[in-house]
Design brief:
N-terminal domain of MutM-like DNA repair proteins, 2 domains, five-stranded antiparallel beta sheet
């Protein structure tokens, strides 16, 4: 699934090509793409027609295009969603789900999604944020992110630190890849009990998360899956710089110890047994 850096790369591309333009409407080619817009395809297209895109915003893995002060077009890419900016006459993608046109007859915005876990919807705004994602915490690259609140809430949990990082109500945008890479940089095992994390270690972990995200952004995102691309259809390159994620049995870049893989929440956790020793009292 695309993580925060990948979604931010897409947001920047959409911002460049779409902000200031007026929607002519939408052609919905697969109902699952708007399944969370209960009024259906005709209403979805009608709510967009004649509306001008004011900006392109993001929180965690969600991005949205405000359509004035009261509503926005909200997008979640899911496992394989792509937002592509293309000329109207370009060949149609096999998994094209929604085509969004503009009144200026220039490039169009296409939502392509092979696995159909992503979705688009028109939603009301509350204080500039879509109401349906108001429960999601700010992400660590937002100005609204409150470090002291995060540190206090982290220590109040009774869980492993990686599980806490994946909780979008605590900190948004941290996915499996970024969590493993940040924990390696901070020298923390993924099962470290949150209530025992010292303040200095919490601060180091947060800075490590930000470093990983910024470096991934600089490389255009992480492209393990060829389905992740930016609005021009290009892949990112941060996967080439990963220290532990997906590197089972390869030497740790810091100490040379083979990287270990553990099952974790139907996924995997990668860590260095030497640099990230399992702490006493670690949760399974």
């Amino acid at each position: 699934m695309p993580e925060l850096p990948e979604v931010e790369v897409v947001r920047r591309g959409v911002e460049r090509w779409v902000v200031g333009r007026t929607f002519a409407g939408a052609e919905v080619l697969h109902p699952r793409a708007i399944r969370r817009h209960p009024a259906g395809a005709e209403d979805f297209s009608g709510r967009l027609a004649g509306r001008t895109v004011g900006s392109a915003r993001r929180r965690g893995k969600y991005l949205w295009l405000p359509l004035g002060d009261e509503e926005a077009l909200l997008a979640h890419l899911g496992m394989s969603g792509q937002l592509l900016v293309l000329a109207p006459g370009s060949p149609v993608e096999r998994h094209l789900r929604v085509r969004l046109g503009f009144t200026d007859a220039g490039t169009e915005l296409r939502f392509v999604d092979q696995r159909t876990f992503g979705h688009l919807m028109v939603v009301p705004l509350s204080d500039g944020v879509p109401e349906v994602i108001a429960h999601i915490a700010p992400d660590p690259l937002e100005d609204a992110f409150d470090e002291e609140w995060f540190f206090a809430r982290l220590r109040s949990r009774r869980t492993g630190v990686k599980r806490a990082l994946l909780d979008q109500s605590l900190i948004s945008g941290v996915g499996n890849i970024n969590a493993d890479e940040a924990l390696w940089r901070a020298g923390m095992h993924w099962a470290w009990p949150t209530e025992t994390v010292p303040p200095a270690k919490s601060a180091l972990l947060l800075e490590s998360i930000r470093q990983v995200m910024r470096e991934a952004l600089a490389e255009g995102g992480t492209s393990f899956d060829s389905l992740y691309v930016n609005v021009n259809g290009e892949s990112g390159y941060f996967d080439r710089a990963l220290a532990v994620y997906g590197r089972r049995d390869e030497p740790c870049p810091r100490c040379g110890t083979p990287v270990h893989r553990d099952p974790f929440m139907n996924r995997s956790s990668y860590s260095c047994p030497r640099c990230q020793p399992r702490p006493r009292g670690a949760r399974p």
